[in-house]
Design goal:
The chain is mostly beta strands. The protein is 11% helix and 43% strand.
Length: 150
């Protein structure tokens, strides 16, 4: 056997076929890769998120482990929240007769549709223990006013 055995190869192919089927059925289906990437493959990971509607505000919690606060980016564009981050890690081990260098790179990106219009000027974001929490106050829409027709 000339090739290194990858136990996830068949599962990865099945996963890709399933994503294509789901995207045909529901175009807004969001792809999330659950299996590890193959060697040398640079993958963008979609962080797991919770979107919570708390009446007067929307709270989004995103799991982004191993990232420093300085490497995070949060943007609001219309009715979408975009969260992105990069994690780079280099390790080097020198022993007699060899040097081993490992480099890993992970990119995170997720565009999240918001359930309501929010005030982008009053957004509060915190990052602690790998969890990014974004609190966004909703814009108060005036109640309908009935107009009398003369």
């Amino acid at each position: 056997m000339d090739r290194w055995f990858d136990p996830f190869e068949e599962l990865r192919g099945l996963q890709e076929r399933m994503y294509r089927i789901f995207k045909e059925i529901e175009p807004s289906f969001v792809e999330r890769k659950m299996l590890p990437a193959t060697g040398g493959e640079l993958a963008t990971v979609e962080p797991f998120v919770d979107v919570i509607d708390k009446g007067d505000k929307v709270v989004v919690a995103a799991d982004i482990p191993g990232v420093e606060k300085e490497d995070l980016s949060v943007n609001i564009s219309g009715d979408r929240l975009e969260v992105s981050a990069e994690r780079k890690k280099e390790a080097e081990e020198k022993k007699e007769g060899y040097i081993r260098r490992d480099r890993t790179y992970t990119s995170y990106y997720r565009a999240i549709p918001l359930p309501a219009e929010v005030d982008a000027d009053k957004v509060d974001a915190t990052f602690e223990n790998g969890v990014l929490e974004i609190t966004m106050p909703k814009i108060q829409v005036p109640e309908k006013k009935k107009i009398e027709i003369k």
